[in-house]
Design a protein that fits this description.
It holds the Pfam family Ribosomal_L35Ae. By secondary structure, the protein is mainly beta. The protein has 1 helix and 4 strands. Helices cover about 5% and strands about 35% of the residues.
Length: about 80
């Protein structure tokens, strides 16, 4: 049995920016969000992230200084 953690820590998140909803000239589709992911620049890189869950972390004052309010969304 191996004691302790071996190797480097794995980061399980990637920062991104919500750009808005998928839309056409006259319609908006609120079930599909457009997200700009840091470090992802080509269509080939996007394939791994397609269909994964997205969390929206809102930095706002809360009752306790250690907790951050957040909302869960599905991509």
């Amino acid at each position: 049995m191996v004691k302790g953690r071996q190797g480097e820590r794995v980061r399980l998140y990637v920062r991104g920016t919500i750009l808005g909803y998928k839309r056409s000239k006259s319609n908006q589709y609120p079930n599909t969000s457009l997200i700009q992911i840091e470090g992802v620049n080509t269509k080939e890189e996007v394939g791994w992230y397609a269909g994964l869950m997205v969390t929206v972390v809102l930095f706002a004052p809360s009752s306790s200084p250690t907790s951050l309010p957040n909302q869960w969304e599905l991509e």
